[in-house]
Amino acid sequence: MVMKVYGPVRAACPQRVLACLLEKGVNFEVVHVDLDSGEHKRPDFLLRHPFGQVPVVEDGDFRLFESRAIMRYIAAKYEEQGPNLLGKSLEERAVVDQWLEVEAHNFNELVFAMVMQLVILPRMGEQGDLALVDACERKLEKALDVYEQRLSKSRYLAGDSFTLADLSHLPTIRYLMNEAGMRHLVVQRKSVNAWWEDISSRAAWKKVMELAS
């Protein structure tokens, strides 16, 4: 049975899941959810996701929400198919999980706050808080300095192989560089930029971008 992914293809969190499915060569069906009209807050959708967010996946009778949990599920269920995205040893898996936590709490939250102020609120006719953007940018610079140090020593965040730790960053960095206009935060850091050029050139991510275009 084909896995169903509920959410708009252009949204960052669904893109994270789609990239994982494509890396693993898993067939899927996208069920569009119109965020602009508030479809994700309607009673029928809240039965799938009680917090009214995207994505949600349905794999037969099994339902799961939260993009990073979904990625881990896909990578584990199809561990023997496609690239190993979880890490091969206990230690490698722990490092993958470590960097997924870093991405969620020290990277994604800052980028989301910046995109909200610079892109989403102005699109809604509201003024963004530029002081908050500046504060987030300073914090993000410090975080990316840590990334630069790490990536100067290893090709990918969790070691020598591409894993969920890298994949999870793809949608957020794209938003940071494009919509948020903060490309300089990446390109000014040699190792971070080389890493971004590497992971964003993967066939699975290119396919996600095609689907979103």
Low-confidence stretches: none
Order of helices and strands: EHEHEEHHHHHHHH
Please tell me how large the radius of gyration is: 17 Å
Give the overall silhouette: globular
Distance between the termini: 27 Å
Largest sheet: 4 strands, mixed
Quick one: how many beta strands? 4
Number of helices: 10
Look at the helices and sheets and give the structural class: alpha+beta
Could you estimate the helical fraction of the residues in percent?
55-70%
- The spatial strand order of the largest sheet comes to 2-1-3-4
User: Approximately how much beta-strand content do the residues carry?
Assistant: 5-15%
Mean pLDDT: 96
Describe the structure.
With 213 residues, this protein is α+β, with helices and mostly antiparallel strands. Helix content is 56%, strand content 8%. The protein is built from 10 helices and 4 strands. The protein has a 4-stranded mixed sheet, covered by helices on one side. β3 and β4 (62-65) form a beta hairpin. α1 (12-24) packs across α7, α4 (90-123) packs antiparallel against α5 and α5 packs across α9 (190-199). The longest helix is centred in the middle third of the chain and has 34 residues, at 90-123. It is globular and about 45 Å long. The two termini are 27 Å apart. The relative contact order is 0.14.
